[in-house]
């Protein structure tokens, strides 16, 4: 996706900065509810005709509704660098932990486990260490986590101390609160989208922003086509997880203890307490995913057997995993935009000039994995 020759690119960039306000106005017109914030460098002389551009934040109106309709309190972030002639960053992650800690003190923060492993394997290589790390991260109870960490300590105390230094609430399912109904340990979705954004990171600012907008616009339509073919009350992923849990539940035995509580035992000394009133299980999988675990399914089946009006297991799945919720999310479409020749001209006393500052060091693929937490 090249626009003109490399030598002409600076002139194209400068021209797009002068029409940036026109572009923003078109965004507001075509996609109501859009938020755009443009920050400029401090100008000592307020009468000066230009303002040096620093950064821009855009949140399209339809995507705000998209996020709220999803009912999942989960935000993923990743970053990519822009190239010459006016370098910078898209979705900057510098100082992210401190910023989130200040702005959202109650927000749960997760680290990508793959990045932790990339750091770890600089010293401790091999599948044994990798499997140990994943075992520690994927356990869902504190007791199982402590046991897995003890096994790691026995294997290599230095590696254990290194991993122990990372607060477990950032990478261990056993320490996740469950508020987002997402037990993911990786940041794959963000990195997938980021790889698409990289295709425009060497383009002038408006061209780059338009590439991102068009990609998201087409992605929503593409997913909508998939949704139209899905049958059932749940999303395909949730259906797959629930069916697997049903298979495992067939090997378990439940005992009603009163007050909506069950003691459920599995074939491998797997015994948990299910509270059907609170929608919880001591294995914590139901809380973390919003999908009834095998223990909860045993309780649901027993309640139905005893003529209680509890419905089918699918009705006990959290609404974040409903097909209805998925459809509502993707009902909000990003509207198409006119070309710049018919944009409304915004009359302002000053215009933007691009920053000439150099870009922070652009990390290589390997360096990006080696993020120190």
UniProtKB/TrEMBL annotation:
<dbReference type="Pfam" id="PF04434">
    <property type="entry name" value="SWIM"/>
</dbReference>
<protein>
    <recommendedName>
        <fullName>SWIM-type domain-containing protein</fullName>
    </recommendedName>
</protein>
<feature type="domain" description="SWIM-type">
    <location>
        <begin position="262"/>
        <end position="304"/>
    </location>
</feature>
<keyword id="KW-0863">Zinc-finger</keyword>
<dbReference type="GO" id="GO:0008270">
    <property type="term" value="F:zinc ion binding"/>
</dbReference>
<dbReference type="InterPro" id="IPR007527">
    <property type="entry name" value="Znf_SWIM"/>
</dbReference>
<keyword id="KW-0479">Metal-binding</keyword>
<feature type="compositionally biased region" description="Basic and acidic residues">
    <location>
        <begin position="363"/>
        <end position="373"/>
    </location>
</feature>
<keyword id="KW-0862">Zinc</keyword>
<dbReference type="InterPro" id="IPR006564">
    <property type="entry name" value="Znf_PMZ"/>
</dbReference>
<feature type="region of interest" description="Disordered">
    <location>
        <begin position="351"/>
        <end position="373"/>
    </location>
</feature>
<feature type="compositionally biased region" description="Polar residues">
    <location>
        <begin position="351"/>
        <end position="361"/>
    </location>
</feature>
């Amino acid at each position: 996706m090249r626009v003109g020759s490399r030598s002409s690119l600076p002139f194209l960039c400068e021209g797009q900065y002068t029409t940036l306000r026109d572009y923003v106005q078109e965004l507001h017109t075509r996609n109501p509810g859009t938020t755009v914030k443009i920050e400029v460098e401090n100008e000592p002389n307020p009468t000066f005709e230009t303002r040096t551009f620093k950064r821009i934040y855009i949140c399209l109106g339809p995507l705000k509704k998209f996020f709220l309709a999803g009912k999942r309190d989960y935000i993923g972030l990743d970053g990519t660098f822009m190239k010459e002639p006016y370098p910078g960053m898209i979705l900057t992650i510098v100082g992210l932990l401190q910023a989130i800690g200040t702005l959202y003190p109650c927000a749960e923060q997760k680290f990508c486990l793959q990045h932790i492993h990339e750091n770890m394997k600089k010293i401790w290589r091999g599948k044994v260490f990798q499997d140990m790390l994943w075992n520690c991260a994927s356990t869902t109870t504190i007791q199982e986590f402590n046991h897995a960490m003890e096994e790691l300590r026995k294997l290599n105390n230095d590696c254990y101390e290194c991993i122990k230094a990372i607060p477990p609430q950032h990478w261990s399912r056993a320490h996740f609160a469950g508020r987002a109904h997402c037990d993911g340990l990786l940041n794959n979705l963000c990195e997938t989208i980021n790889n698409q954004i990289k295709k425009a990171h060497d383009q002038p600012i408006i061209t780059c922003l338009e590439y991102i907008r068009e990609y998201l616009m087409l992605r929503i339509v593409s997913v909508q086509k998939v949704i139209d073919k899905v049958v059932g009350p749940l999303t395909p992923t949730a259906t797959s997880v629930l069916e697997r849990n049903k298979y495992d539940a067939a090997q378990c035995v439940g005992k009603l203890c009163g007050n909506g509580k069950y003691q459920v035992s599995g074939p491998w000394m797997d015994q948990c307490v299910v509270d059907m009133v609170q929608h919880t299980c001591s294995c914590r999988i139901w809380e973390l995913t919003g999908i009834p675990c095998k223990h909860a399914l045993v309780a649901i089946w027993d309640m139905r057997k005893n003529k209680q009006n509890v419905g089918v297991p699918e009705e006990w799945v959290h609404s974040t995993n409903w097909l209805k919720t998925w459809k509502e999310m993707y009902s909000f479409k990003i509207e198409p935009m006119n070309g710049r020749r018919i944009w409304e001209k915004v009359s302002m006393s000053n215009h933007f000039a691009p920053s000439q500052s150099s870009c922070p060091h652009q990390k290589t693929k390997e360096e990006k994995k080696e993020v120190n937490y």
